[in-house]
Amino acid sequence: MSQATYNKIWTNAQKDLDTQLQAEREQFLQPEKDRVKAFRMLAASYIKYLQIFHHLEEAHSHLIHQQKRAAIRQVLDGVIGRILELKKEMVQLENSEFHYTDNVIEDLKLLPEDTEIPIPKYFIKENLEGLQQREKTLDEILLNAGLETQKPVKAMTLEEAIKMIQVAERARQGRRRALFMKQIYLEEKRKRHTKLQEQAGPNPDDAATCIQKVWRGYIQRKKTEKMREEEMIFLGMEVNGKKAWVHTDR
Q1: Of 82, 93, 103, 206, which is most buried by a Cβ count within 10 Å?
Q2: 132: closest CA among 157, 164, 151?
């Protein structure tokens, strides 16, 4: 998608955030004594913030303008903080970290996948070195403890991944170029073969076939003429190659 599309996603997410904040000011102005209603309000706000988070994270991951990314990052961090606050309140209200939000999802016409919380791409990118070091340490602990028999595979760095992608892309372009040059070579070879045939004249087999057709046609015409003459003589309409006139009395 184009940058204009992600700008639109960011704008719509910002509008949804403003609407949600205004709704929270009105809904949470008075404390709700009904436990079921209170949980339903928290769950609805939680899921709506998740939707806003998905849109902001998508815009932040694909926009190129650094100032726009910085502005989205501040809002995105605030949205993540609000999601954690709502999650904490829901846990305290139900004394459980697992919540049944099927009714809320159905009311909002969403899918269960829409409530999943992915790890933000910027978090992985900014903490890539620490995450790799943590994974390496964990693999070494498991290996020393005998819980892992194979030597852990070394994680690929960002520079190595970029280099591998570049090599694969150059190889792909090379294969495409080779195929294109092969097509040009075959086309030129076909043109040269056609030109040589035109210069050398017709194929001997084709010439012999053409002569045979002409000769057979000539022989057949002669046979037909002879048969016609014999028929005319038999009918008495021709004598010694000359037509005979038949007089009839009127």
Answers
A1: 82
A2: 157
Judged by DSSP in three states, 243 sits in: strand
Note the pLDDT tens digit of each residue in 75-111: 988 999 998 998 898 888 888 887 777 777 888 788 8
Tokens representing 110 are 């969403």
User: Of how many residues is the chain composed?
Assistant: 250
145-157 pLDDT per residue, tens: 776 655 556 667 8
With beta carbons less than 8 A apart as the criterion, state whether 74 and 35 touch. no
Overall pTM > 0.85: no
CA-to-CA distance for 41 and 81, rounded, in angstroms?
A: 18
> What is the distance between the alpha carbons of residues 150 and 140, in angstroms, rounded to a whole number?
11
- The token pair at 159 is 């520079």
Give the tokens for residue 203.
Answer: 């194929």
Give the domain ranges of the chain: 3-118, 124-155, 156-201, 204-242
At 186, the amino acid letter reads L
Query: Rounded distance, CA 48 to CA 129, Å?
Result: 33
